[in-house]
Specification:
Blueprint (H helix, E strand, L loop, with lengths): L3 E8 L6 H17 L4 E3 L11 H7 L7 H13 L2 E10 L8 E8 L5 E6 L5 E3 L5 E3 L12 E4 L2 E5 L8 H9 L2 E5 L6 H19 L2 E4 L3 E3 L5 E3 L3 E3 L5 E4 L6 E8 L1 H9 L17
Parallel strand pairs: 1-2, 2-3, 9-10, 10-11
Antiparallel strand pairs: 1-16, 3-4, 4-5, 6-7, 8-9, 11-14, 12-13, 14-15
Helix pairs in contact: 1-3
Length: 282
């Protein structure tokens, strides 16, 4: 197994329907494959970004009926690449709960879905600039973490707001992940303040490559996302990044031997200790 892996992150400004989303992202994925990428990752909400509840309800469908998911599976097989749909907004399949799932789908070079991960942490916040987000009103949180096998090593799956929960990343690393995906649609205020810092911290803490494809710009539903897709190495170094919020392709080559080197230099994953929680303040 080669320790060198050519990858590409796709930065998008996803439209509000799956058909339009596929037309938007497909040329970028083809460009990435033409550039030699064997593993390609897209952002959160690759199949649609629509927060207007009435329109969103009409747009969300089952995973196996979503035009973008179907099209991207065929595209992965045609191009012979592994493709992570950073997330697709699809019906959750839980009876009695009409909220959707925010679901990462890892697709192999035959077009087969080999792993699924539903976003664990949903984003409910009131920002200082007046923006309000209640992801929990439309997204059902997942129940479990996911580490998936690839031809190059194990990949941990996370989505966007998950990046603020370091214990999740530590569990993924301890389960063997040498790469951790963080597809996102970060807001502009939080992106400007925290995006790169959080990603570099998660890479340092885990000794893993962090791969963060992002949405960017002003979307049809009025939201603004930060963009600035980035690849971070296991020592916390920025390997590649886009310094803008426009759609595009970010290429990088991962030297996967760097994971073991980082984890040997600072063997923190072997040094966890059980401890008593802090007592109640007095």
């Amino acid at each position: 197994m080669s320790s060198s892996l050519p990858i590409a992150l796709i930065q998008t400004r996803t439209p509000a329907t799956a058909q339009a989303a596929l037309a938007h992202v497909e040329p970028l994925i083809r460009q990435a494959a033409d550039g030699g990428a064997k593993l390609i990752l897209t952002p959160e909400g690759t199949n649609l970004l629509e927060q207007r509840r009435d329109r969103r309800g009409l747009a969300v469908t089952d995973e196996d009926q979503d035009a973008a998911v179907i099209g991207l599976r065929h595209l992965a097989a045609e191009l012979g690449v592994w493709l992570l749909i950073g997330s697709a907004i699809v019906k959750s399949g839980h009876a009695g709960d009409d909220r959707a799932a925010n679901r990462s789908l890892l697709i192999d070079a035959n077009g087969t879905i080999v792993a699924r991960y539903d976003k664990l942490h949903v984003f409910d916040v009131d920002l200082a600039n007046g923006e309000t987000y209640r992801e929990s009103s439309t997204i059902r949180p997942g129940d479990g973490a996911c580490v998936a096998g690839t031809p190059w090593g194990r990949m941990g799956l996370t989505i966007c707001y998950d990046v603020r929960f370091p214990h999740l990343f530590r569990q993924l690393a301890r389960a063997g992940a040498c790469m951790i995906a963080v597809p996102a649609a970060f807001t502009v205020p939080t992106g400007e303040a925290h995006w790169e810092t959080l990603l570099r911290a998660r890479a340092i803490e885990t000794g893993a490559f962090v791969l963060a494809p992002a949405q960017g710009g002003t979307h049809e539903d009025g939201r603004r996302t930060w963009g600035h897709s980035i690849v971070v190495g296991p020592w916390g170094e920025v390997i590649a990044k886009l310094d803008h919020d426009e759609p595009g392709v970010l290429h990088a080559t991962l030297d996967l031997a760097a994971v073991e080197a980082a984890r040997t230099s600072v063997p923190q994953l072997r040094h966890d200790r059980d401890f008593a929680p802090p007592g109640d303040p007095t």
